[in-house]
Amino acid sequence: MRYVVTGAAGFIGSHLAEALRARGDDVVSVDAFTDYYDLAEKEENARGLDVARIDLADESLELDGVDGVFHLAGQPGVRSFGDAFPLYLRRNVLVTQRVFQSAAEAGVRVVYASSSSVYGEAERYPTPENARPEPISPYGITKVACEELARAYAVSFGLDAVGLRYFTVYGPRQRPDMFFRRVCDALASEATFEVYGTGEQSRSFTEVADVVEATIAAMGGAPAGALYNVGGGEEASMLEAIALLERISGRGLEVRHVDRARGDVRRTKADVSRIRDALGWEPRVPLADGLARMWAWASARVAAR
Ligand code: NAD
Ligand code: UGA
Hints:
It is a single chain. The chain has 305 residues and is α/β, with parallel strands linked by helices. It has a domain at 2-166 and 207-231 and 269-284: 3-Layer(aba) Sandwich (Rossmann fold), CATH 3.40.50.720. Helix content is 41%, strand content 18%. It has helices at residues 11-22, 39-46, 85-106, 138-157, 179-189, 208-221, 238-249, 273-279, 287-304; strands spanning 2-6, 26-31, 52-53, 68-71, 109-115, 161-166, 169-170, 192-196, 202-204, 206-207, 227-230, 235-237, 254-258. The protein starts with a strand and ends with a helix. The structure holds nicotinamide-adenine-dinucleotide and uridine-5'-diphosphate-glucuronic acid.
């Protein structure tokens, strides 16, 4: 099969493009190489993937002969108030609208990355997909807008789109603004780590290999219009996660508490019964195993500096 992967120089997109290639698919990789984080990291992620530098806010996808689009390009990060917001609008809402338009015209399925942040402080835990979306970050609002665009394009153009609400993804190549990456970097370089708030907030952390598996399964097996949570099985607070990484690394972390971040939810816990029933997917990587793999990757990077 021939697939387009957008955001292929990013954290999740690069793993996805590699996995598709490894199983023999023909992959067209696309990324704008935005400067949200160090471009050298994106170059590293993209190594061997032959990524076309295309800004999807300006240029359209060429979909002749393509069997499906994995749309992972976007502006991530829930701490998205203030001057950053126009970038979220452009890279999430505008780009997604343009990808949906191209896919609808070409009659091609799109599997796109949504987010647990659509739930905000969720009305119930574990949170099923039919819980009311009440995002508390501008980022989450742009992700709700993308889901609504998928619905509108399905109604008016017959777009075949499948949305995946990823829950805090971790693993090798995790973005440098994210929690585990920063904890690993601080442990490896003996720096102080800043916890936002009490550290009692918790997440359904999801290992990137599990995310890739769910994403590929959705392209092949999900009904048109499906929307699934893709979340890890083990919930942990930030303090518990730090303790786990201290054990794995055999080091102690110096922690400083600073103000809670705006847009940050107190808890995520995914109900994954819908995707389990439809596609047979469930998270498989235990948090301790995933963190050992992440520590091995992140500490080697710091050591090589
Ligand atoms: P990432 O920033 O590493 O990857 C996104 C990539 O999209 C980047 O390489 C960036 O250059 C590219 N991009 C941005 N704007 C573009 C444009 N206009 N044209 C082409 N490419 C563009 O982020 P990630 O963590 O890999 O996230 C991938 C997707 O998954 C995003 O849509 C994100 O919102 C979503 N998501 C991520 C997580 C997570 O925990 N990492 C959780 C939920 C949802
Ligand atoms: C993550 C991604 O960054 C978003 O792109 C994504 O959409 C979202 O998951 C999701 O699940 O939808 P977040 O859960 O905030 O967002 O993930 P992290 O950035 O890893 O933060 C986890 C927790 O650690 C948050 O409570 C945050 O406040 C805290 N944190 C983060 C710190 O205490 N210190 C830091 O330096 C960074």
